[in-house]
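User: I'm new to structure prediction. If I give you an amino acid sequence, what do you actually give back? Let's try with this one:
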Amino acid sequence: MNEQIQSMLSDNLKNKQLIDLIINMVDTTQCLSSESKVTAIFTLLDQDGLNSIQDNLMNVSLSINDVNAEISDLLEAINND
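Assistant: Good question. You get back a string of structure tokens that encode the predicted 3D arrangement of the chain. For your 81 residues, that looks like this:
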């Protein structure tokens, strides 16, 4: 059970890191847009910024679903003991 908890904590840390990465990407784009709208648009569209944000959000969502399933399994095992 301890290994399962450690795995969930590790997965949650990865989720937080991905969320932080997305926030940094959005912050960078906002900073660029204050300097130049063209540069901000180029960053989002021409350099796959939106695709990267979408991919990272999808990965976080899937990982959160996995962690939730692990927590449900763990709680069920605890209740059966």
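You can read the tokens as a compact description of the fold. Here is one thing that stands out. The two ends are 12 Å apart (CA to CA).
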